[in-house]
Structure formats: structure tokens, C-alpha cells
TrEMBL record:
It comes from Hyphomonas polymorpha PS728. The lineage of its organism: Bacteria, Pseudomonadati, Pseudomonadota, Alphaproteobacteria, Hyphomonadales. InterPro entries: AhpD-like, AhpD_core, CMD-like. This is Carboxymuconolactone decarboxylase-like domain-containing protein. Residues 29-108 form the Carboxymuconolactone decarboxylase-like domain. Pfam families: CMD. One of its GO terms (molecular function) is peroxiredoxin activity. Gene3D superfamilies: AhpD-like.
Length: 118
């Protein structure tokens, strides 16, 4: 990994640690409910899980969310997304979000490529 490149495995690991701690507080029910919402939203329906994860990655890029990029690229790898699917999703995000999305699209591509090396 080159200097200045974000370590998405470390980012998502740190977020998971924080969330584990938060689950031991009075916020546990809210986190449980968020998990239920996530499961329901990602369930296969008119759109399959991979399409929904591509949409989630696009929103994460548009919202400049490092954790979202890390978690959704990992899910996309697990779901068998291709380089072209991820690249076209990122291109749409840049089209709709302009320069700031372009910067995060570069980050998302780096995260995606790092997963391909695993």
C-alpha cells in the first residue's frame, strides 16, 4: 500500500470495534434496529443484493463515507461483482456528484483493487 492510501481494512475494523462498544450501551436497541433495516433493505427483491450493494457504494462515494466504501466494496467482492460493474457504478457517481465524488471514486477504486489482491 502506498503512502497516503487509505487502509480500508483498518477503517472498517476500527468502526466495527467502535460499534461493538456502542452495542454494550443504551444505544444497543437502536443498533439492532439499524441492523434489521439493513437486512430488510438488502434482501433480494426486484433488485438483487449485488445491485443494491452497487447502489450503496455509489451513495457512500457521494456522501464521502470511508467506512461505507470499505464495507460495500467488501460485500461486492463477496457477491461476485466485476471490475466493470464497480467501475461503471463509480462513473455514474462521478457524473451525478462531480469533482468531490471523483476524489472518493478514486478512493473506492483503490479499496476495490486492494480486495482483488486478497
Amino acid at each position: 500500500m502506498s503512502s497516503g492510501t487509505k487502509d480500508y481494512a483498518a477503517i472498517t475494523g476500527a468502526i466495527n470495534e467502535g460499534l461493538a462498544g456502542l452495542r454494550r450501551t443504551g444505544a444497543a436497541d437502536a443498533l439492532t434496529q439499524f441492523s434489521a433495516l439493513s437486512k430488510a433493505a438488502l434482501a433480494d427483491g426486484a433488485l438483487d443484493k449485488k445491485t443494491k450493494e452497487l447502489i450503496a457504494l455509489a451513495i457512500g462515494v457521494a456522501k464521502h463515507c470511508d467506512g461505507c466504501i470499505g464495507f460495500h466494496t467488501k460485500a461486492l467482492k463477496r457477491l461476485g461483482a466485476t471490475d466493470d460493474e464497480v467501475a461503471e457504478t463509480l462513473a455514474m457517481t462521478v457524473y451525478m456528484g462531480g469533482g468531490p465524488s471523483l476524489m472518493y471514486a478514486g478512493d473506492a477504486w483503490t479499496a476495490w483493487q486492494a480486495l482483488q489482491e486478497d
